[in-house]
Amino acid sequence: MNQYNPLQKYYRQPKLYISLPSKGLYYAQGGLTGDWSNVPVFAMTGMDEIIYKTPDALYSGEATKQVIESCIPYIKDGFAVPSIDIDALVLAIRIATFGENLNVDKICEHCEAENTYEIPLTRILDYFNAQKYDNILPINDEITVKIRPLTYFELNHYSIENFKLQKKMAQLEQVSEEERQKIVDEIYKNLSDLQVDLFLTSIESVRIPDSEITDKAIIHDWLINSDRELFAQVKTKLEQNRDVWNVPSQNVQCGSCQQHSKVEITLDQSIFFG
Ligand SMILES: [Zn+2]
Q1: How remote is the CA of residue 106 from the centroid of ligand 1, in Å?
Q2: How does DSSP classify residue 6?
Q3: What does the pLDDT read at residue 46?
Q4: pLDDT confidence of residue 221
Q5: Which terminus of the chain has a lower count of CB atoms within 10 Å, N or C?
Q6: In this predicted structure, what is the pLDDT of residue 274?
Q7: For the chain, what is the radius of gyration of the CA atoms?
Q8: Residue 180 C-alpha to ligand 1 middle, in angstroms?
Q9: Which long-range contacts (CB under 8 A, 24 or more apart) does 105-113 make?
Q10: Contact predicate 79/149, CB 8 Å
Q11: pTM of the prediction?
C-alpha cells in the first residue's frame, strides 16, 4: 500500500469547507487536526453508505462515527467529537454527498395541499455556526459551575441507557401487580442515578471563592447533599443548551393557499440517508 498508486489523483476531493460550531473547543488533544474554521468535507464512499444502512451500527452510533472519520479527515475519532458539532458534520456530509437541498414532504395544515419543500441545508449550518455554547452556570454569589457538551460517545451512551429504561417502563403491562411496584421503584432509581451521572459528566468544575474543584467524587457528594434547587438549576441549564443545539424548525409557504407554517427537520441518520 506504500507504493505510488497511479489512480491516486482520481481519489475523491473535498466538496466543501465548513466551520465547526464548537470553534474547535472541547476536542481532546489531537482529536482535531487543522483549522476549525476551514474543515474539508468529502462525499461518502460506497463503503460509508453501506455502514449507514446497518441498523446495529446506527443504533450504537458506530455508523456516524465511522462516516465522520471517513469524510472529514481532520477528525481522528468520531466518538470524541463534542456533540454540538455532530449535526453540523452530518449535514455537511449530506451536502457533500447528495447536494445542498433536502426535500421535505408536508401536508398543509390550512388547506391540506401536499407540498414538497426544498430546504437549503446550508441555512441550518449557518444557524449552528451562529450559536455559542454557554458553559458557565452561576449558582449563587459564591459558587459557579462550569459545564461542557457531551462527546458523541457520551451522548449515545445516555440516550441508549435512557431508551432501555423507558422501554422497560413501557413493558410493565405484562408484569403482575405485586411485582410491578418493585420494578417501577427500581426504574426510577436507575433513572435518577443516570441523571446524576449525566450531571457529573457534564460538569467540568465547580468554582468557589478560594478554589476550583474538578474531583468528580467531591462534586458528586456536593450534588447529592444539596437542595433540590441545585438539581433544577443544572437540569435547566443542560436543557437550554440542548434546545439551542437542536435543528431549528424551518418556515415554509404553502404553494396552494400561500399560508406560512413550520416544518421540522429530523437528522435521524437512517431517515436522512435511507
Ligand atoms: Zn395550504
Answers
A1: 10
A2: T
A3: 92
A4: 96
A5: N
A6: 45
A7: 22
A8: 48
A9: 106/252, 106/261, 106/263, 108/254, 108/256, 108/257, 108/259, 108/261, 109/261, 110/254, 110/257, 110/259, 110/261, 111/254, 111/256, 111/257, 111/259, 113/254, 113/255, 113/256, 113/257
A10: no
A11: 0.89
Considering only CA atoms, which of 12, 90, 75 is closest in space to residue 39? 75
pLDDT at 170: 87
- pLDDT at residue 269 in the model: 58
Q: Distance between CA 23 and CA 15 in Å, rounded?
A: 21
Pairwise CA distance, residues 274 & 263, whole Å: 19
Q: What is the Å distance from ligand 1's center to 273 Cα?
A: 28
HSE of 181, CA atoms in CB hemisphere, 13 A: 2
Domain ranges of the chain: 13-131+250-272, 136-244
**End-to-end Cα separation, the chain, in angstroms:** 33
Whole-number Å distance, alpha carbon 115 to ligand 1 midpoint, is 8
Tell me how far the alpha carbon of residue 255 lies from the centroid of ligand 1, in angstroms: 7
Q: Yes or no: say if 118 and 103 are a contact pair by the CB < 8 Å rule.
A: yes
Q: Tens of pLDDT along 17-62?
A: 999 999 999 999 899 999 999 999 999 999 998 998 888 888 889 9
In angstroms, the CA 102 to CA 120 distance is 6
210: Cβ–Cβ under 8 A, 6 or more apart, which residues?
none
Q: Which residues lie below 8 Å from residue 224, measured CB to CB, with a gap of 6+?
A: 196
Angle at 185 between CA 184 and CA 187, to 5 degrees: 65
